[in-house]
Design a protein that fits this description.
The protein is about 25% helix and about 35% strand. By secondary structure, the chain is α+β, with helices and mostly antiparallel strands. Strands 7-8-9-10-11-1-2-3-4-5-6-12 form a 12-stranded mixed β-sheet. It starts with a helix and ends with a strand.
């Protein structure tokens, strides 16, 4: 009798243990769910790559400073001028005067310039469109007497004209006022800016014309590198005949 009871108890225990074990179908479903979850994660990673360590940070654009209204009006006053005249470094023997309408220029030297042998000239008529330069000598004295009313072709590449006051002002995008002065009987505002070469420049700008009468260029150490003057400035007062070779002059070579 005891053996029968013991056997029944053992069978009940075994049946209980079997009922607690997961079925093969349940195990398969759980494994399938895990595999599907892993595949989805792998797919997400492949379509959304992580940022590269070498990726550069977003570029920060710093807005350029703006000039105040008074400075802006002064700097932009005659940037578009096409009719003007001035004297460049008049105190220098190598100085000259410039008369310009558009791309036609008359250049007048302080002293005569030797072209060849006994041929000299003191005025040059340049046509920048045609890339031609014609020189004449009309100074009173023995230097010009033998070639009076004669004109000569000149290599335009040798007639380099230093940037005009208008061209210099067109380089100024931002400037600050650092003082004032009187020069050539004109009231000037001294402005400071960085030129395209990266050097500091000071320009003494005529308050009426908005063009520089004095230019000082500094090197990287703050030492004056070069300086120039622009005097006798006028805007809009030239006629076509002022920049055209006079008809009595004949080109001879």
């Amino acid at each position: 009798m005891k053996r029968v009871i013991l056997l029944i108890a053992l069978m009940l225990t075994l049946a209980l243990l079997v009922s607690c074990l997961p079925s093969q179908e349940t195990v398969s479903q759980e494994q399938s769910s895990q595999n599907n979850a892993q595949e989805q994660e792998n797919s997400r990673r492949s379509t959304s790559p992580e940022p590269s360590e070498t990726e550069s940070a977003p570029r920060i654009i710093i807005p350029k400073p703006r000039m105040n209204t008074v400075m802006e009006e002064l700097v932009n006053k005659n940037k578009q001028a096409t009719n003007y005249n001035y004297a460049f470094d008049a105190q220098d023997a190598r100085g000259y005067e410039v008369y310009r309408i558009g791309n036609k220029i008359k250049k007048v030297y302080t002293d005569t310039v030797q072209l060849r042998n006994e041929v000299y000239y003191n005025k040059v008529y340049l046509d920048l469109d045609a890339q031609k330069a014609i020189g004449i000598c009309d100074k009173s004295g023995i230097t010009c007497s033998d070639i009076w009313n004669q004109a000569f072709e000149i290599d335009i590449e040798k007639e380099n004209i230093y940037p005009s006051p208008v061209e210099i002002m067109n380089q100024v995008n931002y400037a600050e006022s650092v003082g004032s002065e009187t020069f050539d009987d004109r009231a000037l505002t001294i402005i400071e800016y960085t030129n395209p070469a990266g050097n500091k420049e000071r320009l003494s700008v005529d308050k009426y014309y908005g063009l520089p009468l004095r230019q000082v260029i500094y090197d990287a150490d703050g030492i004056i590198k070069e300086k120039h003057t622009f005097t006798k400035i006028a805007v809009g007062q030239l006629q076509e005949e002022d920049v055209t070779l006079p008809p009595q002059y004949k080109v001879v070579g």
